[in-house]
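sorry for the late reply, my laptop died twice this morning and i had to redo everyting from scratch. anyway the thing you sent over, i finally got around to it. pasting the sequence first so we're on the same page, its 924 residues, then the predicted structure underneath. double check i copied it right bc i was rushing
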Amino acid sequence: MDRRTFVLLSGAASAGLWRSPLLRPLPAGGPLAAVGGGGLRFDLDEQRRWSLWYQGEGQPVPLLRDATLGVWVGDTLVTLAELEDISVANRRPPGGESLAIRGRSAVSGGVWIEAEFAAWEAGPGAQGSITVSLYPDRVLATIRGVRFLSAPEAQVLPGGGPLLALVNGYQSSNPCRIETVAARPDSAEVVSHAAVGLTREGRGLALVFDAGEPGEAKVKLAGGGLEALSDWLPARPVRPEGDASTMRMAFLPDNDGLAALGALATPASTVDRERFEHLTAPTGWCSRYDLGGAVTEADLVANLDFCAAQFDRRFFRYIQLDDGYQRAAGDWETNAKFPNGHRWLTDRIHAQGFLAGLWVAPFAAAERSGLPVAHAAWLLRGPDGAPLILDTRDDWGGRSYALDGAHPEVRQWLYDLARRVVRDWGYDYLKIDVLHWATAGAAHYGGLTHAEAYRGGLAALRDGLGTEAFLLGSGAPLQHAAGLVDGMRIGADVDASWGGIQGPARAAGLRSFYHRAVWLNDADCLVARQPLTLDEARVWASVVAASGGLTVLSDNLPTLPPERISLLQKALPVALPARPGRPVGTQIDEREVAPAIVAGDEVVRLRGPWRFRTGDDPRYSARDYDDETWETLPVPLIWEGAGHPDYDGQAWYRTHFTLPPSRSGGQAEGRAIVLELGKVDDTDETFVNGQKVGETRGWRRYRRYALPASLLNWGGENVLAIRVLDGGGPGGLWSVRRDRPAATWVVEGAPRWWTVVLVNWEDEPQSVSHALAALGIPTARLTAYDVWAEAPIADVQQTLKAVIAPHTTLTIGLRPAGTHPQVVGTTRHIIQGAIDITDEHWDATTRTLAAKSVNLDGRAYAVTVSVPRGMRPGVCKSDVPCTVRRLQSGNAVHAVIEWSQGTTRDISWSLSFRNVTRPAAPRD
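ok and here's the structure:
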């Protein structure tokens, strides 16, 4: 850290208090002393509110103003301004400087509170932290939480544009989303857990909370402001040795909140960071999605044998058994569908050259497991003292309860379970699911908080498993899993449908900051079966490949057609690129309008009232049907939450709306007219003025239907009717959020060799235009290769432009254009340059391009080479026989080297060129 970059605290206190060289009074007429250098700086005012500044090249820039820090002692919030017996200490943490303020509060018997403000330079931008430590005074006071900051929206990244927040869901299956932080005091509360990324006018500020603290960290966005706190639930006394919570911050002056999160997210130690940077992401197959809970031993063996025949074991490592094998949740021995047991199965998998994986839900204990009766003291309980029933499923063994990870006997049981999985049963990989059950209940053994009970149970599993086996978390509260798992599911379950891949694709982008920093991300399984079209399957494969996380297949592979198998092979192994894949343009204020009629820029919102009736009658679709006696329901909301618990089947929604007069005789001035409806669980048939306008299956899919202008009553009343079929679980019009996934990913597979994934998530063609500089590609002219078409396309200069068909991807390899021949693309892998091409060099003397192709997987293989003007490709020489064909498209010429038989050998090859003299122009 530059000596000019330091933490600056200043305020109206006694002269004796502020003697540290890090402390100086505020200068007259300015909020911050001019000290030069770069980095984050803090100051305190006379009320001991803290502010955060960024010192760049010019004047200091305020990032957060007048924030209040405090601790809830009992039910009283004690702020720094209310402390007595204040003392100050200078410290020098590695790479930075800090100052700690310490004082005593007499509330509830007394507690000592210390707030340490630290700042340093690390990587891009500037970073800092606030650590609040608590120590007992005369008694062990009860602590309910720590508030790091409370500030109005206008004082966070002050500026003229909207403040956007990347809101992180509590557990790994909960979605992330982008929210505008409203300045209104009556705005609804939105909560981000464990981390938040803030963006305003192209600047990014991230807040991340460390693992291992007593509380569960959250950032509340409500009432026109922002509050960051560690919530100790349930409240407990401060420990005799003390407790601490840390919030870390990063600021990027020229990037967004997601990038700031990426700069800040770190694992528990430097050792973990270095391990994740080089750890090979698992690949393989699991039984979860196509076979599901009905999986049998024969199913698994059939897929094992297929994988052995079709996939290269160097790049395809695991065969994982998922839900459906167990006797009951809590009794993880095999049931009658797996008569030979775990060890027979893992021996069979190992004999085929693969590693074996297993799924468990370690905190779940169903009735048929015997645990609830044998160990009633192990169960989490509700406020009434009765054991909590968290689910009832026959395939799990009836009513399911949750184990208390704080109980010493439960921790021993979890340790023994993990030990049995690896030592007795022979598994190499363990997926642990529904981990959020560990944070249920009103209290935990020994008075521990939810966070402490959860992390203690998770640590027991990690210790039992050892360090050699891979541990994947799922359904997991994210903050306190850091440092204990190797991988983490970071989104909702995937489904083999267009709507079913979008939630995981969105999570892959918005939670990309965790990847290879805290753990390896798992966006969920790569599926390719119908009803996904081949183009839609390519979209999901491209996103999975670009995001760089676990790549585990989950179709019943023997039933897939060959072209789908080839698609999956093109995503293996997981690329370890020169620079990890990153989504582009995710931090935007996405206009959410549903439910509404939209014609160009004109929006007519359908505000209700929404009338509702269970049952089914075709007459309910009619425009003139009398629905006055129907009940009204709020939208969006599942109908179980609006007075119809446990209802499954058919029901209808109806609402009446008025459109403004048309200015073009009912044609809406030639603009496309659409009904933006939202998401319906499970299937809808939608009618406008009695005419059916659309039908969609799948609860995750966003409904958007085109409307003919002639159907609408311009200047009068219209009727929207929706027939909903719910096949089980929640039902109804449950969400109006579009939640688009990232439409652009950029991966630098090898130095100066990029793969750009462009996706059209819409139902209409989309025109895209990206300046190369905005994509982080500092080159004016690039050769281009269409990865899925396996063919070169026109060079790209300054701007990447394309028109993309609905539900498709244009995935392009890009390299700087050169004056000599070079590889522009290969058929081996989606991520160009990262897997197969090494030792590429051009010999100008012999006019020969040579390279080595490695990591080939037995499929037919081709390399496309650019041919500059004045040259013609000659002979290909190779360890394995090859052919060369000349490919001309417009004025561009390429040579395609082909190995049609396929090989798994490394190939050293060369391609010679000869100069071509253009014939002289004829004389007059």
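Residues 32 and 308 are 66 Å apart (CA to CA).
thats about all i looked at so far, will dig more tmrw
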